[in-house]
Amino acid sequence: MTAPTSRRGPSSRPVTPHQLKALQLAATGHTHQQIASELGISEKSVGKLMTEIFRKIGAKSMPHAVLLACQAGILDGRPQRHGDHAGFTAHVRRGEDPWACPHGCPEGERTYRTERRRTRRTTDQQERAA
Ligand SMILES: [Zn+2]
Q1: pLDDT at 94
Q2: What average pLDDT is seen over the chain?
Q3: pLDDT band at 79 (very low <50, low <70, confident <90, very high)
Q4: Where are the domains of the chain?
Q5: How far apart are CA 14 and CA 5, in angstroms?
Q6: For residue 87, how far is its CA from the centre of ligand 1 (angstroms)?
Q7: pTM score > 0.90 for this model?
Q8: Are 83 and 105 in contact (CB under 8 A)?
Q9: In degrees, to the nearest 5, what angle opens at C-alpha 69 toward C-alphas 80 and 87?
Q10: What number does CATH give the domain 14-78?
């Protein structure tokens, strides 16, 4: 007996970071026009991007896509935070390389670490002085 080989439903190919970004923007209320300017692509490209996302995750509409993406854990429905320690650690939680973030997370993390070192040094000096 052979197992059925037909694969209906979602494609096994993962949603790309670019597609995920578009979906996140859509999920947080951005119009296609706003998504287009945010991603630096045309509105027509946004439409194609959405079609591709729907096909990949097996969605029939945008709300359906957002729901499925949330259920699959690839979208938490919240806008992503960037540019500080929280944004940096959020990347880590999503399994991304935070140092590759183009939205200021590496800089924010460096500032945070420098500040933390400075604070610790100050505390040490205060403890020694006491
Ligand atoms: Zn970031």
Answers
A1: 78
A2: 84
A3: low
A4: 14-78, 80-130
A5: 20
A6: 5
A7: no
A8: yes
A9: 15
A10: 1.10.10.10
**When comparing pLDDT for 36 and 95, which is higher?**
36
Q: How confident is the model at residue 5 (pLDDT cuts 50, 70, 90)?
A: very low
- Closest Cα to residue 92, out of 105, 108, 78? 105
Ligand 1 mean position, distance from CA 82 (Å)? 4
- Residue that has been written with the tokens 């040490």 in this structure: 124
| pLDDT of 6 | 45
Tell how far the Cα of 48 is from the centroid of ligand 1, in angstroms: 25
Q: Is the pLDDT of residue 63 over 70?
A: yes
Ligand 1 centroid vs 18 CA: distance in angstroms?
14
What DSSP state is assigned to residue 84? Answer: S
What is residue 95's DSSP assignment? T
Centre of ligand 1 from the C-alpha of residue 123, in Å: 30
C-alpha–C-alpha distance, residues 24 and 75, integer Å:
7
Instruction: Find the 36 Cα to ligand 1 centroid distance in Å.
Output: 20
